[in-house]
Amino acid sequence: MSQNSNNTFDKNLKMMSISAAVLIALFVYTIYKSSAHIEGTQYYIGLIFLFVLLIASFGLRFYREKIKIFLDKKRENDNRFNFQKELDNTKSEPKKVKIKEVQHVQTDHIEAITSNITFDDVAGISNVKEELEEVVDFLNSPKKYLKHGIKLPKGVLLVGPPGVGKTLIARAVAGEADVPFFYQSGASFVHIYVGMGAKRVKELFLKAKSCAPAIIFIDEIDAVGKKRSGTSNDEREATLNELLTQMDGFEGDSGILIIAATNKIEVLDEALLRAGRFDRRVFLELPNISDRKKILELYLRNKQFNFDIDILANDTAGFSSAALSTLINEALLNMIKRDDIELNEEDIEIARNKVEFGKKEQKLLNTAQKEILAIYQASKSFISQEGISLFEEGIKKENDIYPSKSKLLQNIKKYLSGSVGIEVVKHEMYAINSEDLKHAYDLANDIVVKYNMSNNTEELILGIKNELRSELSRNSDEILRLKDLMLENEIITLENINNA
To answer: Which fold has domain 367-498?
Structure first.
């Protein structure tokens, strides 16, 4: 039963109790004032009936939780029957899908919510929407896929920086599919009491199975899914083991989909990332200029404003969708302070100062800073011959089991190309993206120490930097062309590179 239904149930009981009490009070008052004119027993029978009504209302209120549970179970059984009936229709033989007997575990405190958010309420996700629509279509029409032997991915992992809308996207998937949505934070599984985290995971999965089809969303899964050390058996590792066991305990046609979110995929345990668990990974980035325009149009829908959205989208480089939402909300608050009904540039500027002041750790760039980052990314794109966005970090790693020395050196070139490119164009060194430098030195050290392919790490790095300076200097015009494209679109595509 949904939360709205529960609220309606409670309100009806409350009104029933109040009505009975008021009627009894009026009845007693009438008898007291007019006792000389009352004859027969019908009045007293009526009074007894009202007392019975009052007692019944109190009784129903006392047992209301059990009544809710009964109605919830009835609804869940109906949903499960309908979903499994559709699965049965896809079988070549007319036999029922076996329903495993569910172990009795207290799950009353775990409640599903009904999401009213759809993809129309989420802007700037055109690059990942197609992947998510496949999942929604499977939940809505499993028969279309199961007749070909296609199973739903057990898990979808949303990877991206904070504020890009991972939770909102998960709720939109549940809203589009119109299925129960179970939200849990990874931190909520971490308890100081041994066994409580694993118990909570088991309860969550049992509840979801009873409501199938359903979606389980685990936010910040890295809180419970970090790599196991193998030297201890603490509560977090026991909880992770239970999560892995539960994910192995159902098939792709069960109607259960697990969506998890993280901004630290590199810290997750390999067992979580293997095939058969989180089969699909969706990578989200900070919105580019066209995405920001769509997000602003969404937040400004049905609102009066007097400024250019295109200019605002260009001036908010580095803002996540959450930061843009805060920006518009703060601007509206300032508009109300002015006792006006139309947003203007002054409201936006005041709101932007508030957002930037509170978000110094994020990349909220001015024009000069944006140009520096554009040169950095353009140089990386030219050397790697791969598309890249303005705020994309790292490089695309090649899964080569036996990498050659030339491939290892090429990867180091990719890591160093950004900083060397800025040095070539600006004739000055800039401190930017220390992680790329760290990866370059780590890889160079592996070549020397681990693979014994070179004699000295510093000499190896110096040689690659000199090679990069020569190559980037010869192609400085191309770097500047790519830089201009990056400033204009905040993304360089493979087509942009090939059209040189």
So the answer is: Methane Monooxygenase Hydroxylase; Chain G, domain 1 (1.20.58)
